[in-house]
Amino acid sequence: MTIVAEVEVPAGYVPQYAMAFGAVDAPAVAVHDDNPLPVRAVRKPAASIPLTGTLAASGLAGPFVPELERSIRLTLTGDWSGTVELLRSADGAATALPLTAGGARWGRFTANANEVVADEGEAGARYYLSATLFGGTLAYRVAQ
Fold first, then answer.
1. CA contacts within 13 A on the Cβ side of 51
2. Which of 9, 13, 53, 122 is the most buried (most CB within 10 A)?
3. Is residue 5 packed enough to be buried (19+ CB in 10 Å), middle (13-18) or exposed (0-12)?
4. In terms of pTM, does the model score above 0.85?
């Protein structure tokens, strides 16, 4: 048995059972593979608070509390000499360990930099900036 949808007066149309869209003053067009919805993924800016400051002597700055599933960018500027390293802790700073990639140190700098250093996926992780300075003033920013 074949079921046929009949158009009855006064409607003059058959309601569509699928998604459709159209421009102002234009007919609606069904959504299908050749005519997808005109959308794009929109991501709000990160809500994390950047860790920023300056150091004129060796020290530890932090914590930076990242938003999950976002890249973390480290920016180092100024006229300074020494070593700066980003540390990560997942236990409330009881242990802050250096970043590694393939077993080698990562996120360790001896000059100005502007790089993505990590992507965080673990709730509760915190980042700290450790600086051993021999001279000058370091300006830093850890942000998403």
1. 21
2. 53
3. exposed
4. no
